[in-house]
Amino acid sequence: MALKTFNLDAEVYEEFSKHCKKHGISMSRKVENFIRDEVGKLKSGSGNIDFRLEVEKSPAVRRGLHRPEEMQPPKADHPMGKFC
Predict the structure, then answer these.
(1) What is the overall mean pLDDT for the chain?
(2) What are phi and psi of 51, to 5 degrees?
(3) Closest C-alpha to 8, from 26, 27, 23, 25
(4) pLDDT score, position 21
(5) Alpha-carbon distance values, 12 to 17, 42, 63, 79 (Å)
(6) Which residues of the chain have pLDDT under 70?
(7) CB 84, CB 75: distance < 8 Å
(8) If we measure between CA atoms, which residue out of 9, 8, 4, 10 comes closest to residue 28?
């Protein structure tokens, strides 16, 4: 297992950390699975998106919360809806 350092928005980190603790979720495993899914999309060809253009489109994308094609209004019934 490799130990990596990421720069994250403090508010996003704190809110996600609270959510993970509340629901007994491993934050590291969640991030690892997200990265694994993204790598799978890139390998399958479904991730052929110019990420530089994505970053320019939305603050949420810049902060890594969403990909433009997945952006939807926040879900009120989900505690982390604005991040999912």
Answers:
(1) 72
(2) -65, -25
(3) 27
(4) 92
(5) 8, 25, 9, 13
(6) 45-84
(7) yes
(8) 4
Domain boundaries, the chain: 47-84
Contact 20, 27 (CB under 8 A): yes
78 in Cβ contact with 84 (< 8 Å): yes
Q: Are 73 and 82 in contact (CB under 8 A)?
A: no
Q: Which of 30, 7, 29 is nearest to 80 (CA)?
A: 30
What the block records as the tokens of 56 is 């320019």
The answer to whether 28 and 36 have CB atoms below 8 angstroms apart is no
How far is residue 32's CA from residue 39's CA, in Å, rounded to a whole number?
11
* pTM as predicted: 0.50
